[in-house]
Design a protein that fits this description.
The protein is built from five helices and six strands, in the order E-H-E-H-E-H-E-E-H-H-E. It is α/β, with parallel strands linked by helices. A six-stranded mixed beta sheet has the order 2-1-3-4-5-6.
Length: about 140
Amino acid sequence: MPQPLPATEAALLVRTGFADDAGWESILTDVFEPEEDSGLGMQAGVHPLSDPQYAGCTLAEVLALVPAAYPHTFLFVVDDVALREFRHPLLVVDLRPPERGRRFRCVPEAVRTIEANLFTDNLGFDELAAGADADGVYRDY
């Protein structure tokens, strides 16, 4: 059994898919690309975690590994689907009871918007999930 996830200062971006290292690197590049539209150059405030002990973990297993001391209400997961699919749709996972485990997908470029809104409570999980397209992926356009 993998070790519990760390309680990090920034929300976690947990890698559970290990079939494509180039895909992981592409996701990181897109996640941390500074936003330029506002002129502020904002970046995503997430902590990437790429540890083979989490390889192949299901969402239920990831949820079981979140420690009580984890200070965030959400996390991101890079699973095999994210690595395999076009535009790398990551999982955004709600950690708040009673809805713990709710999720939607987002493109890596949207992580900065989602993280900022959830961190500041500017928008809730429901509002962001409702912004996903018909295919269930939030694109932040």
